[in-house]
Amino acid sequence: HYEDDENVAEEEDRRQGMRARALPVDGDPDFDSGPPVDGFEYLRRVRHEAKNVPDVMVSPTIDPRSFDHKQTRGYVPDLGGYVPPKCPDCARPDKDWQREFLADFSDLRAWVSRTAARREMSGPSAGDGKGLALASQAALERMEDMNEPEGVSFDTLIRSDEVSAAAAFRAHARALASRLSAEEDELAKSAEPMTPAILHARASWFYALAARVGLPLDAETSASVRALARALAMRRSKVTSSRDPSLPHLQVCLAVAGKYFGQFSEE
What is the 3-state secondary structure (H, E, C) of 173-214? Predict the structure, then answer.
């Protein structure tokens, strides 16, 4: 049923918005009749061909990663002598996993964006941004007190506007970076370490908001994500076992913050 709903939603995308039909025609094309007998038959054939062309086509003979150096991600200023911490071998991410994860994350962002656009076309609801802002603040307060928060609902996420999504994204990036840095600070002996459940909750909120935030990132948001990426890399540098329960969360968040948003490089 889920796939059927997705197919219906995709068809609606083709009929609305930027893909609205300027010259609607009914019926199926008749390829057996030879060349089109009129303009309507020609349009039917064009519609038929367009319908069978995938939204995204990937060449089997071209490696898209060879063009990564030409992409424009978030702005990364001069690091000013910053030296990335060395990643231990037990925590080094697999390149194939990283490539597949980033591709899947990119697809997720595209799907979230399409879903949000369909929701907006159906009529924006009053106070959309407030719903995400309230849920985000409540989650931050609970996590700061070391209590598990409620996760962000998908409905709340797609109802939010880009401004409120970016604000919540910055807030969670800063909060996670601050907590990681506090735990690493030898002077902060009173900093209570995050439990695996709290780290999972913080990572989940960051991942969800990262799937919604718009691009390109503004300077303030880029700085917040960059600070988080550095804190994640520092925590990962202290990992001594590939079975460390925090490692999957660190890898996912660092791949998003560092690789996808371009705010961290180990080179």
Answer: HHHHHHHHHHHHCCCCCCCCCCCHHHHHHHHHHHHHHHCCCC
